[in-house]
Amino acid sequence: MFEQLQNFPRLLLEQDLQPIQGSRFQPTGFPDLGAADFRRADGKRILLVESAQSVANRLEKTCLKGDGPQIAPELDGLPYIVAKLSGAVDTETSSLVEAHRINSPWIISDKTFQAELLKRSGCEKGKPLNWSRIAETLFYFDPNSLVHGLFLVSLDSRIRFPRAISGFIEALDVVEAVSGGVKNDGLDPTGKFITTKNAVAQAVYGNIPYPRIEYTAGRIVAYFNLDLALIRGYGLPPTAEELLIALALLKVRRFLSAGLRLRTACDLAAVNEIKLIAPADFALPSETSLLEAVQSGIKACAAAKLFGDPAVTTIQAVAVKPASTPVPVPATPTD
Q1: Distance (Å, rounded) from C-alpha 77 to C-alpha 63?
Q2: Which end of the chain is more exposed for a tag (fewer CB within 10 A), N or C?
């Protein structure tokens, strides 16, 4: 399926988008900055609609069962790590949803797992790293960590893998669409009669008018970059390489088909077919074909014993509630 990609270092994709209704959309915002509105060197005005970090999170979510932490049922057999928490917190999480994946404190702090990770990867302080062996180990426990990258700083600060698949969304030739609104308080429009000791909470009472800035654009584009050279550099068997490529492209297809409601006022839809920028003559498989390729890859990698057995590694973790600091009680005055 991916023979045409063998001589290319990157697979570059572009997908034109448009608001699903109307022409306005709400971009991503940043603390103390707001929307990332900038100009290119040629003077063209550009707006960052969705950052690389946010797109990475959304790509990860496409293959979860609901919001996780389990893998989607149709991808059963793909390895990942589950941490079952007990004690102060009774729940579970996994390397698929944790911000630092395998380096999650709920996972990497397990001494038994940590020892097995070190043994399989051959990592030793003061000795050179065998990157191919480390990649094999990560693939064994969680192939998604190679797709989305990780930094195993808690194990060895030298172990850092960048994202193999990355993406972002930009809008070109943007113009502000300024409007506003008001938060109505039917009980006390003035906000004078409800009091609270919390100044922040007090500020939300009453009718509160606010400004709103949305945007229109001449063009909205989602960009994706699959680093094929990086995946080849892992030194994994061909079946493993093909699985990583198929998995990454499946996530892109699923994000574009069902994940473009980015915010309440930013609901986008794909326009026409995705564009192959490089290599231009590669035909991107359909979502159905990519899912079949991933499922076949899971079976092939499991048969070749490239995965853990069982595929899901389970860790027991205890969440301890910190002791609260006693609040001093003022002495009772005496007569």
Answers
A1: 13
A2: C
Residue with tokens 């994000």: 255
Measured CA to CA, the distance from residue 232 to residue 9 in angstroms comes to: 9
pLDDT for res 174: 96
Decide: 249 and 59 in contact? Cβ < 8 Å.
no
Burial 240-258 (b: 16+ CB within 10 A, else e): bbbbbbbbbbbbbbbbbee
What backbone phi and psi angles, to 5 degrees, belong to 167? -165, 165
Task: Give the DSSP H or E segment for 166.
Answer: strand 165-183
* β-bridge pairing 29-30 and 150-151: unpaired
Q: Is 151 helix (H, G, I), strand (E, B) or coil?
A: strand
60 within 8 A of 96, measured Cβ to Cβ: yes
Residue type, 147: V
Residue 276's DSSP bridge partners are 13
Alpha helices in 153-306 (DSSP H): 199-202, 228-233, 238-258, 287-303
Mapped to the 3 state alphabet, what secondary structure does 60-89 carry? HHCCECCCCCCECHHHCCCCEEEEEEEECC
DSSP-assigned letters across all residues of 96-141: TTSTTGGG-HHHHT-HHHHHHHHHHHT--TTS---HHHHHHHHHHH
For residue 9, the model assigns a pLDDT of: 96
pLDDT over 70 for what percent of the chain?
Answer: 93
Q: What is the pLDDT of residues 193-225, one digit of tens each?
A: 766 666 666 667 788 887 888 999 999 999 999
Which phi and psi (to 5°) does residue 114 adopt? Answer: -60, -40
Tokens of 281: 């003559």
Query: Nearest Cα to 249, choosing from 221, 280, 284, 283?
Result: 284
CB 74 within 8 A of CB 295: yes
pTM of the model: 0.89
Tokens representing 285? 């498989």
Q: Supply φ then ψ for residue 79, to 5 degrees.
A: -70, 145
